[in-house]
């Protein structure tokens, strides 16, 4: 799939909303904005698989038990099938 980089000007309010969503969901700005555009244009949005959810829950449980075991979500996501 070809990609193009675009510059988008956002109001401070929209920027804060994007930043909050990406922090909570551990995703990039591009992913959040792409999902918003897909939703606007009626395309399906990303939904994590049960395997992805289970991996996240396991990682969160491990982090509570041993904070030194924390890993970046982007690294964990790369280990899941079909998510590179």
Distance between the termini: 14 Å
Strand content: under 5%
> Which word captures the global form?
globular
Major sheet characteristics: none
Order of helices and strands: HHHH
Task: Give average pLDDT, whole number.
Answer: 85
- Poorly predicted segments: none
| Derived structural class | mainly alpha
Radius of gyration from the alpha-carbon trace, in angstroms: 15 Å
Count the beta strands: 0
Total of helices: 4
Helical fraction: 55-70%
Oligomer category: single chain
Organism: Ornithinimicrobium cryptoxanthini
Protein name: Ribbon-helix-helix protein, CopG family
Domain Ribbon-helix-helix protein CopG: 6-40
InterPro entries: Arc_rbn_hlx_hlx (IPR013321), CopG (IPR002145), Ribbon_hlx_hlx (IPR010985)
Description:
- With 84 residues, the protein is mostly helical.
- It contains four helices and no strands.
Q: Which keywords apply here?
A:
single chain; 84 residues; mainly alpha; CopG; Ribbon_hlx_hlx; Ribbon-helix-helix protein, CopG family; Arc_rbn_hlx_hlx
Please sum up the structure shown.
This is Ribbon-helix-helix protein, CopG family. By secondary structure, this protein is an all-alpha fold.
Task: Please specify the SSE layout and strand pairing.
Blueprint: H1 12-25, H2 29-40, H3 50-65, H4 73-78
Helix pairs in contact: 1-2
């Amino acid at each position: 799939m070809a990609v193009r980089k675009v510059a988008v000007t956002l109001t401070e309010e929209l920027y804060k909303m994007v930043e909050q969503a990406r922090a909570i969901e551990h995703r990039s700005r591009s992913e959040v904005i792409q999902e918003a555009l897909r939703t606007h244009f009626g395309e399906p949005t990303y939904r994590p698989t049960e395997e992805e959810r289970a991996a996240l829950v396991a990682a969160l449980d491990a982090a509570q038990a041993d904070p030194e075991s924390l890993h970046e979500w982007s690294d964990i996501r790369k280990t899941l099938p079909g998510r590179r």
